[in-house]
Amino acid sequence: MPHLRRVAVLFGGRSLDHDVSVISGLQVAHALDPDACSVIPVYIDQGERWWTGDDLWKPATFAGARADTSRLTEVTLGGLFGQPQLVPLHSRGTVPIAVDVFVLVMHGTFGEDGCLQGLLDLRGCAYVGSGVTASATGMNKRLTKILAAERGVPIVPWLACDRRVLDRFDEWMPAFVADVEGRFGWPVIVKPCNLGSSAGVSVVANPDELIAGLLRVFEYDTEALVEPFIKHRLELNVSVAGLDHPVASVTEMPVIQRESPLSFKEKYKKQGRKSVGSSEGMAGALRVLDPEELPLAMRRRAQELAVEVFRTLGCEGIARADFLINTDTNELLFNEINTIPGSLSFYLWSAAPHYLTITELLSTLMDRAERLRATRLGLQREPPPELRLLGRS
Q1: Are residues 245 and 316 in the same domain?
Q2: Per-residue model confidence as pLDDT tens digits over 351-361
């Protein structure tokens, strides 16, 4: 009997995107090929405790305000370096579970921002997804824009405001407000710099509203971004897969276009969907794939720029680049990247010309993750003789 690849799918976490991560994680777990993989769902709760067990396959486990972990096994990441295991914490007689590759379906802080990636790197794990540097950079919208602009990618302009402004509010805040008004005018968008969801985002029309918007952001993040509000705009998204040569999916345009950015519920849930167990996540949102009303040249340009940003940040796995189109000027502007997008954007790949199902795509990405892990493990770790201080031979 051929060896089944032991795949741990990580989802949940303590970010604001916890519920979306659960939806996406279960979608990915069900999408893996059962003839080639032994799938191990691993739920990380809001307290950062890791759980596994058959009940994770049941939507009812997540029907309450908190997931029901009473029939699950709590585990921790252990094993030798390069040979990771999920080690039970309290269950006597339960053996550790060896893992060949992890698939990360963690959205937002503490899962998509490099923290979890660093933990897996410390254990020598193979995982599908961007590494520490790309994850941390991609989570920070300001740094992402700086790097993208350096590569010639047109970006939505921005001004940043650090939470430290509160320490000298009367001195620093008036200057920042004047800077925003002089550069962008009104209205503007205020949003967190390091957040995966739409929480804390607002459109403000005057200095008082700007200050209120910044204070709201600082409830969620230590840094805020202020951007001009493009009244006549369209949103356009493109996914990129980190194959040996990164490739772009088709473009997508959210159907709901209005005077304010998409809300959290509009992004992730269909109208009428009420529970995590029944939601289709990003796949259930209203969208147009490969919108024919947009010129082909613009759609292709978005794909090219998405791949450029993906490469510039050094991303792996599946990411999604989000753009805005200023319909008054016909400008295509890069806005941000999600290094672990909702539902891993699988609906964009099944519609792509190269037609990759999420099952096929994940198989290829797991192959690549194991090759990258082998490369990292093969790097020289012993210092040359001239750098040795302790006399080792």
Answers
A1: yes
A2: 877 778 899 99
